[in-house]
Amino acid sequence: MYKTKLSRRTALSLLAGVSTAVVANVAGSHAASTLQDLGSQLKVLPEVTVYIAKRVITMEGNEQDVDAVAVVGDRVLTAGPRAKVIDRIGQQPFRVDETFADKVIIAGLIDQHVHPFLAALTLTAEIISIEDWNLPTGLSRAAANAEEYRARLSSAEDAMEDPDALLLSWGYHHFFHGEVRRPQLDEISRTRPIIIIHRSAHELIFNTAALDVLGITEELVNTFEGLALEQSNFEQGHFYETGMFSVLPTVAPVLATPERLGTGLELTRDYMHRAGVTVAAEPGGVLSRPLQQATNAVFSGSDSPLRTYFIPDGKSLAALHLEDGTLIEETEKLLEWGEGKTAFLPKQVKLFADGAIYSLAMQVSEPYQGDDFHGEWIMQPDEFNEAFDAYWEAGYQLHIHQTGDLAVDMILDAVERNMRRKPRPDHRTTFVHFGYAREDQAERIAELGCIVSANPYYVTALSDRYGEIGLGPDRADDIVPVGPIKANGIPISFHSDVPMAPGEPLFLVWAGVNRTTVSDRVAGPEHRLSVEDALRAVTIDAAQSLRLETELGSIAPGKFANFTILEADPFEVEPDKIKNIGIWGTVLEGELFPVGSVKAIDKAMLSPAKGAGQMAHGVREEPEAQSLIAQKGLLAGCSCCASPASFVCTPSVAGQTSTVSCCGTNALGWAVVSEWATRA
User: 601 by DSSP, 3-state: which?
Assistant: First the structure.
């Protein structure tokens, strides 16, 4: 959390032309009696920098004639028309900076929900996904269907110079790209190891060469038991859910090398900066001190162009500490894990309700179309309610992963129960993702004081396909139903959940304003937001969802001087062009960070050559400790576990249909934690 605060009252006194400090000095020393005396006092104050722009979008009214913002140190003094700003400054020293004279300044963009660690592992792979990824290292175009996917993967293999180097690719999704298994990968190459990470990061697919290199044999797979064996198919080279987790200790040394993690974190940081992000938050990331330190090493330094906050994973914490009564104590210990420009937000925590929208594992009141899809609870209702009540009792703001309307009901019931037993003002319980909800639930969300953090990209990516499978056309067009939320006056923020969506706030604005699907049609036009409301969702309303609105989110006196510098005005371009607006860079707490060049990534260096699997086996000196850590991650609330506290697992229906379940981020994450734990 920022250490310095400037009250709105103090800020307004600055606007009056004199700070409270000057007033106190004048009154307590020689009681200046003339404007000349006051002017001499103003001249010894810090120098003001006045940035001139074509327009300054303050998110505090957004008047058209605002073209200047005055900054003192890391804070905003005032903003307005240039002449008025300079007149306000008076005799205090100032300089005019015209760096942004032909550009547009907007309040610093905020991505309310990111996963830099998971992005580090996936964005350094060969990206062949269902959407474009415009990374600092180059543009990866979407593969829309099975033919495009196979062609792209073959081209990637052909382009590799080292015949033995591993081809690691992320982005494949069976709903769009058809069946890709070991036989199909062997058609591309039987000699080069190929590993495919599913778009959800919860399935792995290997060709024969990869299985050989990593030492994954039929005999090894036959030693698996129960669900792990059921969700493993050696002949097809396909391992998902618990099956994937069973082979990850062998694969993790390839995925989790220090080179890949360090390079990936740098790439993720630079990617978010190029998208204009000044502040980001990760809710519910993997709880690992070594991984947090690795993230801090890249994101916390004074040269980092953004500030990153973290929100603890209450699901895992509750599974480990709720019964012994140390839940809150253990949660608060995480406040010590940040440093520099990284920090854990106090009194905030994330819980999980139902399964992932990418897997069609949402809990919905109207049955799915067909028998292939079933809702999942990430946290069983009894477990969820117990954890919810404990954190509510301790005064926490709860951010809750929710994708289906039955999960909305469960969360609202928990809020109402707690408001009736221990009312709290301004609790800001947050619906995270907001995949699907019924119109009748919006009024209750408003009445109970909840807020929404939505991912509008779901509409773009999934509405067309889910109209054909699972949901049907009406519900598919109604995913991310923010129309009634806006109508009821409920604050709405947007987030990317990168890498679950491109980590670009203006892309999210475009998605929320247009609701254009991959087939270029509009899905659910009644849920479209205005440009101003969508911009609020990545500025002031995003800050409000994190309880940071008094410090950032708009350009106002006393707030931090966080700006994103745009090449065009989002209010002036056509709505379907908002995502294409160029970004010069950012200003973070008064310091300029222009977008710079990024060195190319040597993927051959990141992807070990043939034989890496055997070499990797040699670094795991403590397999027992590694196995225990991996088991803890698996049994701390993933969908296959009905009773995490008792370590009793029951089959996951969603998992059996080869879809991503509840904790795709944590499954891969815990495997990497287990690898890094032996190095720490």
Answer: coil
